[in-house]
Specification:
Elements (H helix, E strand, L loop, with lengths): L2 H13 L5 H20 L6 H8 L3 H13 L1 H15 L1 H20 L4 H11 L6 H11 L2 H16 L1 H16 L4 H23 L23 H27 L5 H25 L1 H4 L11 H33 L3 H13 L1 H14 L3 H19 L8 H22 L11 H23 L4 H18 L25 H9 L1
Helix pairs in contact: 2-6, 2-8, 2-9, 2-10, 2-11, 4-7, 4-12, 5-6, 5-8, 5-20, 6-7, 6-8, 6-11, 8-9, 8-20, 9-17, 9-19, 10-11, 12-13, 12-20, 15-16, 15-19, 15-20, 15-21, 16-19, 17-18, 17-19, 18-19, 18-21
Length: about 500
Amino acid sequence: MDLTRGSEARKRLKGLWSFQGKYRILHLTWLAFFLSFVVWFNFAPFVNTIGAQFGLTKAQKVTIGLCNVALTVPARIFIGMALDRYGPRRVYSVILIYSAFPCLAFALAQTFSHLVVSRLALSVVGAGFVVGIRMVSEWFPPREVGMAEGVYGGWGNFGSAAAAFSLPLVAGIVGGDDGWRWAIAATGVVALLYGLFYFRAVEDTPEGVSYARPRRQGALEVTTRSAAHGLALLTIPLVAILGVILWRVWLVEVISTTVLWIGLVGVAAFLGFQLATVYRVNRPAMQGAYPEADQYPFRSVVVLSVAYFCTFGSELAVVTMLPAFFADTWGLGPAVAGVAASAFAFMNLAARPAGGILSDLLGSRKRTLWTLLVGLALGYAGMALLGSAWPVPLAIAMCMACSFFVQSGEGAVFAIVPLVKKRVSGQVAGIAGAYGNVGAITFLTVFLFVSPSVFFMVIAAAAVVGVLVTHWLVEPANSFGSELAVDEPEAVLAEDELEAVAAG
């Protein structure tokens, strides 16, 4: 990092204290993400309270938790499509306004079935993250996009932690058995009001800049035959994970074997439909209709998805099991164990922006991601060594060190995502983001059958795979340009021209 880049970094950090121009959009957008995560995670602080009030079994509480993420994976894909078509201002506003209704339904629920249905509907809100990725990239040039996306992701992601420590306080102020209902309902009302405000307060692009849209809808638009086949393969785990969720619900005996098989048949049918859509949408790519100047490296989408599988996927999995790990390993009480475990998630405020800033400043976004994934692999290998012989403060320090690489790796991933191909950046963000949820469900499923030390080593092994596949990542063109990124108009064929070339 030379002195010039260091000076630029200081200017950008100073700009974060501004509420003008592009920084105003950044702050309004990370706050939208923050509120969406407060809503998405508003069940976690009240698991035991709700369980006691409704007389829920452990299996039923696990089921509600799974419902909270069940539709997030497909939602991230479809929201990415809507985002590229309608723009982030409309889509983020709709998500926030929509979130109020299942949120209020959950707060008013009187039966376990009502809890499940409303939580399924709320799981869509977890997909809101991808919207801000496109919004921020529209306002910041490539050389600054890492910092901006890191701040957006890190500060917005803190909404989950904010929900954990603030909502019980709200419930306590209200008092009584229904305190949790008022606290959860309040998050929905605030999200609705902010959604209305956000629609009026922001624009999709700076004045004079047009919003690039994909020409084909229904699946990610790719530009080569091999990419179409690659997208089909990449789609399979995104749909198959729904089957894993069904199996997890069946495993705790909440649904019958008959319902499980009916659900699996439905998942298979949905997969078939999605694969058919991939090839239908990308018929021009299968026929070689895209000029070389308009093609983009789909393998970068694959690498970024694998990287986010390892980074965000492991973060979600680890923060889920870490409180119990501290309690069981060192005999800590629930409150103390929760505080110790929170150190892992608390790093988001600084580590994710740091990953984006490093990606901006070190001269190679590919090399930065590779280095952080190496650190992630070593961090989880270190966590696999944790045991009761370790002093608790040293164990917390180990978790925080590992967490730095996890969350800075997330920042480095999304410093690249918006630069792969402008007009489909929402869908690329949706696919990569969805793989983060796939990673979480995968790692937590592994945790059902192994010890914590083996669990951490499995994640470390996955990170090694991420390090290896980073070799195929293509450094985005103009990664450090000072002008806003756009698709070159002269390189883009119109829809009718694509069809004509595809038809021969």
